[in-house]
């Protein structure tokens, strides 16, 4: 590792302090209540749920109070981003409030990023003054505010400079592995390049799958480039070792997920991505060069808004800021110079010094852009896997490289100009340059209205907290509440646009209630509330009570009619009335008395059988051939672009269950024939006109997973590639019988 001199300690201290001060100013923290999350909507809610689960349960993989009655198992949504949960665990030693822990970690991310960026910039031999300023600006990158707490793991990109620093060391022919220099063995180990690489790569591989993959891409290309340039196999194998270690760390982090799926079977719906999303979540050159969406100057913000409104493939609005954009232009110009004028560059500049480093950084920028741009090499990767879609997130790697290029160019210009001036003048100019750069970058990259939502945010948070605290107080510890409509979690939405993550609000404000929603989608024990939509609405209260629910929470924002039909049916069946939230979004129905009446009317055997049938239902699963979504009635709509797509009939019980399946098959041609092959090999076929054919079939669903194949052909018998399944119902016949059976 690099030894810290007194001047280095002062530099890192200054970076931490300056970053902290500017973060306080930018976020206007004097206006904030730190116990209320800065962002209280959308994807910030699952992040908050992770913090809450770690605080309450000790780790995030299992939360018994979500996905009731069986609990939420996050191993069905595999991730290697455990470093942030470790941080949450650490913060839980000081606070039991998830909002406070979440906010503190977000703030700490700015300071940690500034510190690691200083190390990277010093590796790039940039002067101390510019390293300080550029490191702080990197911590305040537009990306940091665009991601915010909604994508807190991505916003916590403090491991990125450590990884990129190893790539730069590789280009500089400096060792990634080896012993340190000391007479003491432990000192040699601790201060060695090997220890540095192990620590940095362990942090990277534990912090982000995306940043790890991006690093592996740049590392591979760097290793190959150095091998071609220097014919140095030792450096190449050193890079290969770094890559293998990164992969190993990622696998270790995901090992519990692999073991869980090995025991319980693979869940194809848990992490469901489309290959086409790779290009939607890519970036474009003009996006990086334009002002970022939150720019302080209204004309510049309006320019970006106009672009994002009228041009396709907006993605996640990547942007570099003006200083990073200058660095990007400089990188491409330098690449042209390297290609066109290389023979005119003196050999001493080609093989070492700032010019060589500028060339290396520019190559890394070009490689990163080549993979992450629209229609770039990431599209080729998508042919093999759909798990990696957000390649625009490589913009934060590009940003650091571009800032380093700006720093090197400014240092070169300053040294050339300063050769004819005294030391005092040089120091004064360097200080003024740093101040101007910091001022321009700070104004350009940071929002001016970060605190404007604090008051409304806190009001909404407090109102929800009071409402759900009241519900919790009315229920015994461990009581279960059915949340409707069911929206598969995560990364799904209702037809109204309500995100599944928004339904985490009840959980975030309670500590003893079990909620039926937010189990990881794809298994019958998680998706059972969604099956209730396939039965008549007037049975909802009956089925909810049979499933063990003491209450029903209707999220009106997820229903096209704002819940009027569903609520009327619940009131009619149970005789209870709605307890409505102050904002009118939620309606809660206490059905504890109704449940007791229902239980008393059935035998113990019937109650147990009905409970098992409802919470472990026979169901249809659609991935990987079909992409599924919810229609306005809460029913599944599945679309496939395969010529012979399959879905699966899943029965997790030990005995066969009689079911009735109905669906409407829609194709891209107006006339032809639809054939559905059932698990027993029998075929249902029907000629259709008007592009649709309706099917209803009763069958015995045997235990296990069994394929159902759908094939649509045109009048010539040619398979049609686009197929849509709608109005899908799967009713377990015995449920209807038992639900109507009283005594």
Textual characterization of the structure:
The chain has 29 helices and 17 strands. By secondary structure, it is of the alpha+beta class. The protein folds into five domains: 158 residues, no CATH class; 100 residues, no CATH class; 146 residues, no CATH class; 153 residues, no CATH class; 122 residues, Sandwich (Jelly Rolls). The strands form four sheets. Strands 4-3-5-7-6 form a five-stranded mixed sheet. The chain has a five-stranded antiparallel sheet with strand order 8-11-16-13-14. It is globular. It starts with 5 loop residues before the first helix and ends with a helix. The model has no long low-confidence stretch (mean pLDDT 89).
Brief rundown of the structure:
With 743 residues, the chain is an alpha+beta fold. The chain has 29 helices and 17 strands.
Structural class: alpha+beta
Mean pLDDT, all residues: 89
Overall tally of domains: 5
Distance separating the two termini: 76 Å
Question: Main beta sheet: strand number and arrangement?
Answer: 5 strands, mixed
Cα-atom radius of gyration: 29 Å
Tally of individual helices: 29
Weakly predicted, low-confidence segments = none
Shape call: globular
**Which range best describes the helical content: under 10%, 10-25%, 25-40%, 40-55%, 55-70% or over 70%?**
40-55%
Arrangement of strands in the largest sheet: 4-3-5-7-6
Question: Per DSSP, what share of the residues sits in E-state strands of 2 or more residues?
Answer: 5-15%
């Amino acid at each position: 590792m690099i030894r810290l001199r007194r001047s280095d300690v002062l530099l890192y201290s200054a970076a931490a302090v300056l970053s902290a001060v500017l973060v306080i100013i930018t976020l206007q923290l004097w206006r904030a209540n730190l116990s209320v999350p800065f962002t209280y909507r959308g994807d910030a809610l699952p992040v908050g749920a992770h913090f809450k689960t770690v605080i309450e349960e000790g780790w995030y993989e299992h939360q018994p109070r979500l996905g009731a009655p069986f609990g939420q198992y996050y191993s069905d949504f595999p991730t290697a981003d455990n470093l942030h949960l470790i941080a949450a665990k650490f913060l839980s030693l000081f606070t039991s409030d998830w909002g406070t822990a979440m906010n503190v970690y977000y703030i700490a991310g700015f300071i940690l990023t500034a510190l690691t960026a200083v190390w990277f910039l010093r590796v790039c031999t940039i002067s101390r003054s510019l390293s300080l300023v550029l490191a702080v600006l990197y911590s305040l990158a537009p990306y940091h505010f665009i991601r915010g707490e909604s994508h807190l793991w991505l916003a916590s990109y403090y491991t990125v400079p450590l990884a990129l620093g190893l790539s730069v060391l590789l280009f500089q022919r400096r060792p990634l592995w080896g012993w340190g220099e000391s007479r003491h063995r432990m000192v040699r180990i601790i201060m060695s390049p090997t220890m540095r690489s192990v620590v940095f790569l362990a942090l990277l591989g534990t912090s982000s799958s995306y940043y790890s993959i991006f690093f592996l891409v740049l590392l591979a290309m760097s290793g190959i480039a150095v091998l071609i340039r220097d014919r140095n196999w030792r450096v190449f194998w050193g890079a290969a070792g770094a890559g293998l270690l990164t992969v190993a760390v990622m696998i270790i982090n995901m090992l519990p997920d692999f073991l869980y799926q090995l025991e319980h079977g693979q869940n194809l719906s848990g992490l469901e991505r489309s290959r086409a999303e790779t290009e939607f979540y890519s970036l474009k050159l003009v996006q990086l060069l334009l002002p970022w969406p939150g720019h302080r100057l209204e004309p510049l913000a309006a320019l970006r808004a106009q672009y994002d409104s009228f041009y396709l493939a907006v993605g996640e609005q990547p942007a570099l800021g003006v200083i990073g954009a200058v660095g990007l232009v400089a990188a491409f110009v330098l690449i042209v110079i390297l290609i066109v004028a290389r023979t005119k560059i003196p050999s001493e500049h080609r093989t070492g010094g700032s010019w060589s480093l500028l060339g290396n950084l520019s190559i890394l920028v070009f490689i990163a852009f080549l993979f992450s741009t629209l229609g770039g090499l990431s599209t080729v990767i998508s042919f093999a896997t759909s798990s990696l879609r957000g390649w625009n997130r490589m913009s934060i790697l590009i940003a650091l490289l571009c800032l380093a290029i700006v720093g090197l160019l400014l240092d070169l210009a300053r040294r050339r100009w300063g050769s004819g001036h005294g030391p005092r003048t040089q120091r004064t100019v360097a200080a003024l340059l740093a101040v101007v750069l910091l001022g321009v970058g700070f104004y350009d990259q940071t929002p001016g209205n970060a605190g404007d939502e604090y008051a409304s945010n806190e009001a909404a948070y407090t109102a929800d907290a009071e409402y759900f605290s009241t519900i919790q107080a009315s229920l015994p510890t461990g009581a279960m509440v059915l949340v409707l409509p069911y929206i598969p979690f995560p990364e799904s939405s209702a037809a109204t646009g309500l995100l599944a993550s928004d339904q985490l609000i009840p959980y975030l404000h309670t500590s003893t209630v079990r909620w039926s929603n937010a189990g990881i989608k794809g298994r019958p024990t998680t998706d059972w509330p969604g099956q209730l939509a396939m039965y008549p609405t007037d049975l909802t209260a009956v089925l909810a009570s049979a499933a063990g629910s003491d209450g029903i929470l209707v999220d009106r924002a997820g229903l096209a009619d704002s819940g009027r039909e569903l609520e009327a049916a619940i009131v009619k069946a149970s005789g209870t009335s709605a307890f409505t939230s102050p904002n009118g979004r939620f309606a809660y129905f206490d059905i504890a008395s109704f449940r007791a009446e229902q239980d008393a009317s059935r035998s113990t055997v019937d109650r147990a059988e009905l409970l098992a049938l409802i919470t472990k239902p026979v169901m249809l699963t659609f991935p990987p051939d079909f992409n599924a979504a919810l229609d306005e009635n809460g029913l599944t709509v599945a679309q496939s672009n395969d010529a012979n797509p399959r879905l699966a009939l899943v029965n997790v019980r030990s005995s066969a269950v009689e079911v009735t399946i109905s669906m409407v098959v829609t194709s891209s041609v107006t006339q032809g024939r639809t054939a559905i092959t059932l698990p027993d090999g029998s075929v249902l076929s029907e000629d259709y006109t008007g592009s649709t054919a309706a099917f209803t079939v009763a069958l015995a669903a045997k235990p296990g997973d069994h394929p159902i194949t759908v094939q649509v052909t045109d009048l010539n018998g040619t398979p049609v590639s686009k197929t849509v399944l709608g109005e899908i119902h799967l009713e377990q016949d015995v449920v209807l019988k038992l639900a109507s059976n009283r005594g």
